[in-house]
Amino acid sequence: MRKTEIVCEIIDSTLVAAATRAGSRRADGRLVDPDVETVMYKHGQVREGMKVHLAMDSESELITAVALTSVRVNDHNVFEEMIPAETEAVFADKAYDSEAHRDYLQKRGIRNGILKRAQRNHPLTKAQRLRNRERGTICSAIERKINDIKRWAHLTRLRYYTKERNWLQVLFAVVGVNLKRSVKLVQLQASSVC
């Protein structure tokens, strides 16, 4: 029996607002939620909350890995733990482009589909831009899944204090979205059999 499907993972992260503002204190002076931090984004935007990292199977569109971290944790730090053992190809946006990740994927024999990032004084070639455009269509699938989680599972704001409680909220949201997708996969399979 020959395997025809490639196990392909798409990785991305999203910021989710916290239940309280960073630095909020109780009457006794303790922090309300010590896990909430603030980070400065482009153009002076200040964001507070936590970051949800996701890995999704490109074929079934089921979420295969999830992590909840501080907004200050760079996407690079959780890249390796988001890739399951049986993965044959990884696609991700430019935030994950680094020499270390390329070496890691090559060592494991995984096809590299990470979008190439331009370096200072070294713009992308026309071929690299075309490759990014092709890979970007694959990477856009996880953006739709993130929108599903935020809209359908109401994960636009974390409801609880502390990372442990918020982790449960994120986990239940992911399980709910996966169950919703599983029902659709079963319906598609049943209609193809008939």
Quick structural gist:
The protein is an alpha/beta fold and 194 residues long.
Compile the SSE list and pairings.
Elements: E1 8-16, E2 37-40, E3 46-57, E4 63-70, E5 89-92, H1 99-108, E6 111-114, H2 126-152, H3 163-193
Parallel strand pairs: 1-5, 5-6
Antiparallel strand pairs: 1-3, 2-3, 3-4
How would you describe this protein?
This protein has 194 residues and is of the alpha/beta class. The protein has one domain (8-193): Nucleotidyltransferase, domain 5. The chain is 35% helix and 21% strand. The chain has three helices and six strands. Strands 1, 2, 3, 4, 5 and 6 form a six-stranded mixed beta sheet that branches. It is globular and about 60 Å long.
Mean of residue pLDDT? 87
Proportion of residues in helical segments:
25-40%
- Class by SSE composition: alpha/beta
Q: Can you identify the CATH class? A: Alpha Beta
Report the total helices: 3
Main sheet, how many strands, which sense, barrel?
A: 6 strands, mixed
CATH topology: Nucleotidyltransferase, domain 5
| Rg, nearest Å | 19 Å
Write the CATH homologous superfamily.
Answer: Ribonuclease H-like superfamily/Ribonuclease H
The helix-strand sequence is EEEEEHEHH
Distance between the termini: 24 Å
Uncertain runs are none
Task: Using brief descriptors, characterize the structure shown.
194 residues; alpha/beta; Nucleotidyltransferase, domain 5; 6-stranded mixed beta sheet; 6 strands; 21% strand
